[in-house]
Amino acid sequence: MNSSIFITLLSLAIVGALAYFAAVGFRGSGKNEELPANLTKYKSDDELETKHLDKSLSWAVLIASLLTIMIPLYYLGEDSRQESFVEEFEDVSVERGHHLYEEFGCGNCHGVDGGGGAASYVEKRSGVKVTWAAPAINNVFYRYDDSEVKYWLIYGRANSPMPAWGLEGGGPMNDGQLEDLIDYLHSFQVEQSFELGTIESSINSSLLRLENSALQVENEIINQKLLIEEIKAGPAKLPVLQEAVDKISALLEKDSGIDSDEDGLYDSVEVEISEYSATMQTL
Ligand code: HEC
Q1: Structural domains of the chain sorted by starting position, each given as residue range(s) with its CATH number in brackets
Q2: CB-based contact 177:95 (threshold 8 Å)
């Protein structure tokens, strides 16, 4: 702001001075028949060495003092001017990055706010269609630095839904666009305390699973032992089963009686079967 006022004033002064010199230079020229300036009588020595000289010198002192004040003022503002240029440059870059994020649909997989999402994907070798988790990227700079993120952006992740975005990886974006995108990703990273909270709770739940795992393994071993016992007892149960099959087949062959619920089985047969299965279960 300071600098633009200074530059405007300076330009005005230069234009004014040029106009003044041009006016003086052209004075006397033109259509009228007056004598040329070098032939007209100018001021007397008395006038030149007193009033005229004083006036010129006063102007010189005034302009020199103005410059003496303005140049240091300009210098003092230089740091903040440069900082605001950098800020402005970054703001514009973030804006361009936001535009790219929307244009290339990063949000379709990673979520509009970068909080994570999913992508459907056909695994190349097996042809199986899967839903692939797309990680949150509003915390990606707690895992990777800028150059690592840029690498993933340029080349994507092979054999995953994440495509290559950089020209070198066969994607559509040049280096400047990738930088803008990275500046935009920086602009919406979650607070560090929030990220630490998430990490802590996932560590805790993993620890809990580890603690319980010994118990789970024990239970599983007991289950497997029971299963083996049952398998071993199988042959002993075979005659009993055979007997049951014979008995029930005989019952089903009965061809007279009342079928009150009309399910195709006579009531007496239904009673006998349920009594029989009750005795079987006690075995
Ligand atoms: C079609 C879905 C899809 C789109 C579109 C997509 N990504 Fe990805 N991205 C993924 C998946 C899936 C992964 C994780 C791959 C894996 O499992 O290794 C990923 C990984 C990443 C990673 C690495 C994150 C990490 O923690 O490992 C970054 C950074 C990233 N994507 C940024 C972007 C940006 C920026 C865009 C937009 C230009 C984008 N992605 C577009 C699906 C997508």
Answers
A1: 87-190 (1.10.760)
A2: no
